[in-house]
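for the writeup, i need someone to sanity check this before i put it in the appendix. the sequnce is what the collaborator sent (i think, or maybe the updated version? ugh). structure was predicted straight from it, no edits. if anything looks off just tell me and ill rerun, i have time this weekend
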Amino acid sequence: MLKPRIIPCLDVKDGRVVKGINFINLVDAGDPVEQAKHYNDCGADEICFLDIEATKDNKKTMIDVIKKTADQVFIPLTIGGGIRSVEDIREILLAGADKVCINTAGILEPKLIRDAADRFGNQCIVVAVDFKFINNKWEVYSHGGTQKTGLDAVKWIREIENLGAGELLLTSMDRDGTKLGFDIEFLNNIRSLINLPIIASGGAGKLGDFEEAIEKGGASAVLAASVFHFGLIKIPEVKEYLIAKNIPMRI
């Protein structure tokens, strides 16, 4: 069994790291390259950059930031936002990313997921699903969480697996930035249906939340943002806590 990963997420807007609550009320959280270097040095297992404006505003992905970051960090780097084609993915990987994260483009054109996995290998294709619990079901949102899609999240995730994705990034918009813990019910439900590795996102607020996402939610990795960016929890603290709970970690 692979050891669980701890992944800081850097949401980027206009060249700066930002963080909000429920995908709104964004505040500045620093320079992306400096933040990435810091997390590299303090023991993160991977880093995830999500350009949250690129898709919504029809912009290209931040290639210059990727190149600068790849020169500074020596752990896997996942990039999302603004991806619309296989050629976009190629450009991002050539700039130094190890994985790409597809969200809206996969909803609009599911074939992109299969084409990307076939061309580059599914190990570097992460598909993100942003979801809310509405009318007794989990619904998928697109364009940085700004547009309802009408898609049932559970059905869409099963389709994602069939299309050949290598990993899932599941973000609860209801929990995002609230520090109330992850949506364990949803994670556990999805874990029972699919075989893909799951990155749990949305809701980290205390050390026990990381343990719960792994032990009860079946997550292969746990992603967090604000608790790391603003120093409420440090990555070494998470790893020490989980090791004390008999969860093996990468040191």
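The mean pLDDT is 91. The longest helix spans residues 153-163.
thx in advance!!
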